[in-house]
Amino acid sequence: MTMVMASASNQKMAFYSSTSNSPVQRRNIQSNASNKRKRIKKHRDQHWPNFGMTKSNSSKTFKGTPRAEDTKKWDPKRDDQKLKENNLELKEKNLELREENLQLKEENLGLRGEGQRLKDEITRMERRELELCKENETYCFQLAEK
Fold first, then answer.
1. Segments forming the whole domain that contains residue 39
2. Looking at residue 145, what is its pLDDT?
3. Do residues 93 and 144 both lie within one domain?
4. Which tens digit of pLDDT belongs to each residue from 105-120?
5. Considering the entire predicted model, what is its pTM?
6. Domain-embedded: residue 82
7. One domain for residues 93 and 143
8. Nearest CA to 28 among 60, 4, 51, 64?
């Protein structure tokens, strides 16, 4: 007696005979069964995470202290409080830096004003020097004429 079955995953025909199957047919039958087991296990794990566990086993998984990476699941308020504290510290630092920045800007403006004043004084001194050189030349010419 021979039966024909088409699997949904790969559409290969597997022949079941009452006497014996070839190695290729056995392999196809086994892979189809394996695929079906995997699909069932995946579906079961997605929808029934505690499938097959007794009450004692399932209660053991939830007891105990949380791991470091699970703190958000266990105590989100603590993390929010830490974030708020860090935020306040950063705001205080920001205000201090702004005040320091304003002081430096005022110093910079003062130095710019002083620098401009010094430049103006240098140009006045250079003009005075040129005037004195001209006076000296005219005086030298007057002496040479005498």
1. 1-52
2. 82
3. yes
4. 999 988 888 888 999 9
5. 0.33
6. no
7. yes
8. 4
